[in-house]
């Protein structure tokens, strides 16, 4: 796709949204205020975590459940209760797509347009719904009933194409079934999802994600949690394998020798010893005990060479090389250079005491 980041389509493709939070006076004037009850519920969430700031994600869902999106007021409340800056809270709120930056409709309709769903018709479903609602990605119908969005993946590839309403699944959709679903939502109906709990609305599901039940009656809440799932597509591969007598190959047992891994470490065959550095002859020593010039090395340098040669990974090799006494040379290779204090004096011209260089310059 060629959409640019920040455009309606680019936001869906890249996850990057540069649009500001809606803080227009007209919008804020229509929102219900966050009350002392909101703060009490926020503190209840905080009390569930050993570290207060860990409560930020459910708290953002909480303020969103009251106002329909994460408003500047909601950001300020979270910051005050957690002892964070508004910038820190805003950084989290603008990172995750489940926290909305502008007012959301009564229902949030998400259409998966990632690879498998797109191949099976997901993009056609999105285009049809966008035309019916008169909106693009992350926009709300004029009557406030539905906000439509692309979804990069809804983690239900075995039910593709998938549409969710307020994060509840409607599986194996096509253009016509999706249009019927959205039309029912706009009439105020709540068609039962293909699987899972009964449909609520966007603010209701935000409250659930904050950790609070939307059901006053405990039996109703329990029934929603225990709603029957639909897993036949997920089990189709297992059923076909059983019918055909197919099974995964057995895992190697302790009696089976590990496969040869060519001397590599950390493979299925278990740890193997690394390469042993080749022994080098002790270099010749001068009268003062230092190594002579040429390929000879001090014991410290030979030990450093061995550490480089025995490194398992490029990172370990680079670290050993950085600690080598001679960083400028080829790591782990003999070094043909002069040692300090062992250089041969430059040759002199007989009877003149001058070096060849001196005579040329003269």
Give structural notes:
- By secondary structure, the protein is mostly helical.
- Among the domains are: 16-93, Arc Repressor Mutant, subunit A (Orthogonal Bundle); 107-201 and 220-225, Glutaredoxin, CATH 3.40.30.10.
- The protein has helices spanning 8-14, 25-29, 36-46, 56-67, 72-82, 86-93, 115-119, 122-133, 175-186, 202-209, 218-225, 232-244, 299-309, 314-322, 356-361, and strands at residues 107-112, 139-140, 146-151, 163-165, 168-170.
- Strands 2-3-1-4-5 form a five-stranded mixed beta sheet.
- The longest helix has 13 residues, at 232-244.
- The radius of gyration is 35 Å and the shape is extended.
- It starts with 7 loop residues before the first helix and ends with a helix.
- The relative contact order is 0.07.
- Mean pLDDT is 78; it is low at 1-16, 263-274, 288-294, 328-343, 348-353 and 356-362.
Please describe the topology of this protein.
Blueprint: H1 8-14, H2 25-29, H3 36-46, H4 56-67, H5 72-82, H6 86-93, E1 107-112, H7 115-119, H8 122-133, E2 139-140, E3 146-151, E4 163-165, E5 168-170, H9 175-186, H10 202-209, H11 218-225, H12 232-244, H13 299-309, H14 314-322, H15 356-361
Parallel strand pairs: 1-3
Antiparallel strand pairs: 1-4, 2-3, 4-5
Helix pairs in contact: 3-4, 3-5, 4-5, 4-10, 5-6, 8-9, 13-14
